[in-house]
Design brief:
Chain A: Keywords: Membrane, Signal, Transmembrane, Transmembrane helix. The structure holds two protein chains of two kinds. By secondary structure, chain A is an alpha+beta fold. Chain A is built from three helices and eight strands, in the order H-E-E-E-E-E-E-E-E-H-H. Chain B has helices spanning about 5, 15-25, 130-135, 140-210, and strands at about 30-35, 40-45, 50-60, 65-70, 80-85, 85-95, 100-105, 115-125. In chain B, a hairpin with a 5-residue loop joins strand 4 (about 65-70) and strand 5. The chains are: A alpha+beta, B alpha+beta.
């Protein structure tokens, strides 16, 4: 009986593979950075998102974003996207194997990228037919776990976008104060300079007008 | 949805099915570490969160390649440092909130060598030792899974509250910026008009003094 409990414990831990809390991992992309994910079953759903954290943007055209290219185990291109600052992606993996997720940075400066990739597997109807011990309730629980993982992924995405917007807003606030003070100082300086210059001009010429 | 009452029945798996699950566990991300560069992965973690990491060399371009791993806290404190290993594990509870970085590099500087490193990084709910909790509280498979789901929902709720607080702060900041734009615009205009008026007055008195007007 104890052996069964231990085996059940191990099985439950194995099933918890799909229940990892969201990894919002950050890395710096210089030109190309690639990560790999193993897909265990044919037809598994792979989804994820990435957000580019730009800390100080001056000209928007300098930061076009990051391109994602996903290559399958046989080298075929499974998914690709144009340069985006934040994107959610989802595709069904046709074959099992090692998938390569490459992030390309077209800009000159390195970008900080926060990404999340999840491979979800739900035991399907064909597994139900083959395995008489796999009850429909297991399938439902697996679906529930996957749905919660998707919610967690969405929250992570929103948190990362919020970080990005926050840095933009703080930068706006700093720029507002700095530019207003600089503008006032330069205006005062220019007007005092003008007055001084005109005074000098007329001090020299005073003699000519008298004539 | 099958009602929860039916879920708490006994849930017996055959050994073959168990083997199916266990032998197919390949978790986590794989990184490619080349001879020339350091691969660093970071995550923003709140304080008081359990973090468990596990890394293993999966494939190498040459034999006898080993990797050096280093994990640092946001203030630069070294939490884990192993040199020339093929696999390793680390676990810590975050004391301060911030960016925790894990870096990997090869000892040899040859640009052509590379290896694939499987990194499994778990935080919070996923990092807990569910096996020992199952044994201690005597939960069977179904109960344990539902317990995990319950904890996951709790952590999602906490994250949503955190997000809501951050949004409130950002909204305050935006409203402050908006009102400041208005006030600074008016102030700039007043400074401009004031300076223009002073210029006219000063030059008028200057020319009157010089008997030109």
């Amino acid at each position: 009986m104890r052996i069964w409990a231990l085996l059940l414990g191990i099985a439950a831990t194995a099933l918890s593979v799909c229940l990892r809390t969201a990894d919002g991992l950050t890395m710096t992309v210089h030109k190309v950075e690639c990560v790999y994910e193993e897909v265990e079953y044919d037809g598994d759903m792979v989804y994820g998102n990435f957000v580019v954290q730009d800390y100080e943007i001056f000209w928007g055209s300098d930061h076009p974003g990051i391109e994602l290219v996903v290559t399958g185990p046989q080298g075929n291109k499974v998914h690709s996207s144009t340069s985006k600052e934040a994107e959610k992606f989802e595709f069904r993996a046709p074959r099992r194997g090692l998938y390569k997720f490459c992030f390309h940075n077209p800009a000159l400066a390195p970008e900080d990228l926060t990404f999340y990739i999840h491979v979800g597997h739900i035991p399907g109807i064909q597994d139900l037919a083959q395995d008489e011990n796999l009850k429909p309730v297991n399938v439902k629980i697996a679906q529930l776990a996957e749905a919660l993982e998707a919610v967690s992924a969405e929250i992570r995405y929103m948190q990362n976008r919020d970080k990005r917007h926050r840095s933009t807003n703080e930068s706006t606030q700093r720029r507002l104060i700095a530019y207003t003070v600089a503008e006032s100082v330069m205006l005062l300086g220019a007007s005092i300079g003008q007055v001084y210059l005109i005074q000098q001009l007329f001090s020299k010429r005073i003699g000519y007008n008298r004539v | 949805m099958i009602p929860l009452v039916e879920c708490f029945g006994s849930h017996i798996l055959t050994l073959r099915q168990l083997f199916n699950f266990i032998s197919n566990i390949v978790e986590g991300l794989q990184l490619e570490v080349t001879g020339r560069t350091t691969k660093c992965i970071a995550e923003e973690i709140q304080s008081d969160v359990l973090v468990v990491g596990d890394y293993k060399v999966v494939s190498t371009s040459e034999d006898d390649l080993s990797v050096t791993a280093k994990v640092t806290s946001p203030y630069g404190k070294q939490l884990h440092h192993l040199e020339n290993v093929h696999s390793g594990q680390f676990a810590f509870t975050s004391k301060e909130s911030g960016k925790y970085v894990a870096c990997f590099w090869l000892q040899s500087a040859h640009p052509n060598v590379h290896l694939n490193l499987a990194l499994d990084w778990k935080t919070g709910v996923g990092a807990k030792d569910w096996e020992s909790i199952a044994k201690k509280e005597k939960l069977d498979g179904m109960q344990l899974e539902l317990r995990q789901l319950e904890e996951a929902v709790g952590s999602i709720h906490k994250e949503m509250l955190y997000l809501r607080d951050r949004e409130a702060e950002m909204r305050n900041l935006n409203e402050l910026t908006n009102s400041r734009v208005g006030w600074f615009g008016i102030m700039s205009l007043l400074v401009c008009l004031g300076v223009a008026g002073w210029q006219l007055w000063h030059l008028k008195t200057f020319f009157e003094r010089k008997k030109l007007l």
